[in-house]
Design goal:
This is SMI1/KNR4 family protein. The protein is α+β, with helices and mostly antiparallel strands. Helices cover 24% and strands 9% of the residues.
């Protein structure tokens, strides 16, 4: 398999959701290109999960249209409300969670909560964008949940995908985009 070829099962869905035409013209950012994707991956000692990897290389590196509410961020950027310059982020260290965690409701983990929270925000994920009010969507790039999308807020973190019980959407970047494009609420499971 050639890692520098777009995953063909998803491009039409991704282009439509982010308002990108077949010529690669977008209302958002331009494509990153494979050379820049390779440089980003090398600098951070990771390989971005597909189809997000091909999306930023060949379709758009960020977009004002599509999910989340304030648009998809370019791969190397953080939301304006991030709070620091992101210097402590280490994408190659594993994302620490595999199940939802509402830290405000978990007194049993109070002792190590600060250390785990630092890892949740700074290790193993790129920030896809924000729905505002410190509700940031992350794509896990390292660790057991590599390829999964997570919503991380000021009170907790939860994975996106029907197997986690919060939504009817498929897991991963393409499932997250399809769910949004179908105009469904993020967490629509009964």
């Amino acid at each position: 398999m050639n890692g520098d070829q777009a995953v063909q099962a998803e491009p039409a869905v991704l282009r439509a959701a982010f308002d990108v035409d077949d010529g690669g013209q977008s209302k958002g950012e331009s494509t990153l290109g494979w050379e820049a994707v390779h440089a980003f991956e090398s600098a951070h000692e990771i390989v971005l999960p597909e189809p997000y990897r091909s999306f930023v290389a060949e379709i758009a590196d960020g977009s004002f249209s599509g999910p989340p509410a304030y648009g998809l961020l370019p791969v190397a950027e953080l939301p304006d409300d991030w709070g620091d310059d992101g210097q402590d982020r280490v994408l190659s260290k594993p994302f620490p969670l595999t199940t939802a965690w509402m830290w405000e409701e978990d007194p049993d983990r109070a002792e190590d909560a600060d250390e785990i929270l630092e890892q949740v925000y700074d290790h193993g994920s790129t920030v896809l964008g924000t729905d505002g009010c410190a509700m940031n969507w992350h794509l896990v790039v390292a660790g057991p949940h590599r390829g999964h999308v997570w919503l991380i807020t000021d009170v907790g973190a939860a994975p996106f995908g029907e197997q986690f019980g919060f939504t009817t959407g498929e897991p991963g970047f393409a499932g997250w985009v399809r769910h949004w494009a179908a105009n469904k609420p993020w967490y629509d499971a009964a």
